[in-house]
Amino acid sequence: MKSVLKIEYFDDETGEVRSDKYKFGKSRIKYGFSICYPALFDALSNVIRSNVDAKIVFYIISLFKSKTNKTEIDYIEVAKMFNVSSSKVSKLLGRMVKYEILMRVGRGKYLINPFMYIPYKANGYYRQNIWKSLKKN
């Protein structure tokens, strides 16, 4: 099904009101969106202390994809990638856990808080129920 968008505008050269029609059909969305709740930004304000911290944090958040509920984070590899010490990345992950952006569920394995961030195409309801059940334990 094709849709038509009609735009009217004033043409400075002719002094007339003109209109153009644009036809567009159904198309696949190549890139979608993720959901970031305000709580994420509140928590990040406590976690991020430098520009490098911000780069590392947003890289870590980008590791969480729609198909995986938990992600393995090798802090030594992240440290090499950003040319910082492994203790800096370890402390940063610790702060992310402290402010509940992440939950540690095993050695090097983390969940991202679905009440703060839901990756593109992820089932938020499912993830939030998992988070709640793990918080109770």
Characterize the structure shown.
The protein has five helices and seven strands; from the N terminus they run E-E-E-H-H-E-H-H-E-E-E-H. With 137 residues, the chain is an alpha+beta fold. The protein has a three-stranded antiparallel sheet. It has a two-stranded antiparallel ribbon with strand order 1-2. Strand 1 and strand 2 form a beta hairpin. Helix 3 (75-82) packs across helix 4 (86-98). The model has no long low-confidence stretch (mean pLDDT 83).
Short description:
This protein is α+β, with helices and mostly antiparallel strands and 137 residues long.
Mean pLDDT: 83
N to C succession of SSEs: EEEHHEHHEEEH
Structure annotation, total helices: 5
CATH architecture: Orthogonal Bundle
Alpha carbon gap, first and last residue: 50 Å
CATH homologous superfamily (4th level) name: Winged helix-like DNA-binding domain superfamily/Winged helix DNA-binding domain
**Relative helix content:** 40-55%
